[in-house]
């Protein structure tokens, strides 16, 4: 995994967000039924919104994302 900083004319940044997707009441049913397709769904969402997925293989609900500074976390999630 390369550690690269993004830059503009006067700033440099390297922001990584650890996002945890938790189902309501932490029900395990989502992991049993959709475990195989969760990774594909998250990859499609990241490519659609222009977000780089750094890691996403540890658990089905944990993702490490690099969200651009032009986008807030709430706009990615919403």
UniProtKB/TrEMBL annotation:
Name the UniProt record assigns to this protein: Transposase, IS200 family
Mention one GO molecular function: transposase activity
What Gene3D superfamilies is this protein classified in? Transposase IS200-like
The record's listing under SUPFAM superfamilies reads:
Transposase IS200-like
**Gene Ontology biological process terms in this record:** DNA transposition
Q: Name one Pfam family in it.
A: Y1_Tnp
Transmembrane intervals: none
InterPro entries per UniProt: Transposase_17, Transposase_17_sf
All residue ranges annotated as the Transposase IS200-like domain in the record: 12-77
